[in-house]
């Protein structure tokens, strides 16, 4: 597959840009570099899609049945086990993401020191959000402890949660974006879009359910008092 793409005239030229089609043009250019049938690309898509589905399904099942807590005889051990599984799946996802980038062409316009430094900065920002989120929430707070009945006393409002909602997810997305730019990889950029979209779906799925858990906690506390 050729790694060359058409110039700006394919989008109508810079002098008369239709901004409504700008996103389509960018996506078209990215797709010009990507072979969707490549096994590494398919594996990356599957792991990106599967991971949030896995932890949401398992966590909701645990919240309804307490089966994992019964198997491990402790909600904490059950949560630690799910957390370990999630960490393994995230390592696998990152590996598949990297292999998909390495198996497909680079974008020449990104293959320069300036772009590399931008990618490195994004990686640093993303890692800061991810690590600071983990330290603010703790292991059980990070890995769905509330679904195991391990509830936090109050909503975390310290950094980075005072900067943006869901900093763990957006920090992870920034990591993938930075990694893709550092590798000058249009495949990585496209996969980063998939990561962001999957996280957006996960947020819509998780936040109302988590809010419901804490509402039940509040209601139970009021009844006791």
Automatic annotation (TrEMBL):
User: Which keywords belong to this entry?
Assistant: Endoplasmic reticulum, Lipid biosynthesis, Lipid metabolism, Membrane, Methyltransferase, Mitochondrion, Phospholipid biosynthesis, Phospholipid metabolism, S-adenosyl-L-methionine, Transferase, Transmembrane, Transmembrane helix
Give the molecular function GO annotations. Answer: phosphatidyl-N-methylethanolamine N-methyltransferase activity; phosphatidylethanolamine N-methyltransferase activity
What are the subcellular locations of this protein?
Endoplasmic reticulum membrane; Mitochondrion membrane
Q: What intervals of the chain are marked intramembrane?
A: 39-59
Q: What class of enzyme is it?
A: transferase
Q: Which residues lie on this side of the membrane: Cytoplasmic?
A: 93-119, 205-225
Note whether Disulfide bond occurs among the keywords.
no
Which domain of life, per UniProt? Answer: Eukaryota
Task: Kindly state which reaction or reactions the protein catalyses.
Answer: 1,2-di-(9Z-octadecenoyl)-sn-glycero-3-phosphoethanolamine + S-adenosyl-L-methionine = 1,2-di-(9Z-octadecenoyl)-sn-glycero-3-phospho-N-methylethanolamine + S-adenosyl-L-homocysteine + H(+); 1-hexadecanoyl-2-(4Z,7Z,10Z,13Z,16Z,19Z-docosahexaenoyl)-sn-glycero-3-phosphoethanolamine + S-adenosyl-L-methionine = 1-hexadecanoyl-2-(4Z,7Z,10Z,13Z,16Z,19Z-docosahexaenoyl)-sn-glycero-3-phospho-N-methylethanolamine + S-adenosyl-L-homocysteine + H(+); 1,2-di-(9Z,12Z-octadecadienoyl)-sn-glycero-3-phosphoethanolamine + S-adenosyl-L-methionine = 1,2-di-(9Z,12Z-octadecadienoyl)-sn-glycero-3-phospho-N-methylethanolamine + S-adenosyl-L-homocysteine + H(+); 1,2-di-(9Z,12Z-octadecadienoyl)-sn-glycero-3-phospho-N-methylethanolamine + S-adenosyl-L-methionine = 1,2-di-(9Z,12Z-octadecadienoyl)-sn-glycero-3-phospho-N,N-dimethylethanolamine + S-adenosyl-L-homocysteine + H(+)
Q: How does it sit in the membrane?
A: Multi-pass membrane protein
- Matching Gene3D superfamilies: 1.20.120.1630
Bilayer-spanning residue ranges: 41-59, 71-92, 115-137, 144-164, 176-202
Amino-acid positions noted as binding S-adenosyl-L-methionine in the UniProt annotation, renumbered to this chain: 124-126, 206-207
List the InterPro entries: PEMT/MFAP, Phopholipid_MeTrfase
A single cellular component GO annotation: mitochondrial membrane
Query: Per the record, a Pfam family?
Result: PEMT
**Topological domain spans for side Lumenal:** 1-38, 60-71, 141-183
Pathway(s) per entry:
Lipid metabolism; Phospholipid metabolism; phosphatidylcholine biosynthesis
Q: Which GO terms describe its biological process?
A: methylation; phosphatidylcholine biosynthetic process
Q: What does this protein do?
A: Catalyzes the three sequential steps of the methylation pathway for the biosynthesis of phosphatidylcholine, a critical and essential component for membrane structure.
HAMAP family according to UniProt: PLMT
Q: Which family does it belong to?
A: Belongs to the class VI-like SAM-binding methyltransferase superfamily. PEMT/PEM2 methyltransferase family.
This protein is called what?
A: Phosphatidylethanolamine N-methyltransferase
Q: What organism is listed for this UniProt entry?
A: Lynx pardinus (Iberian lynx)
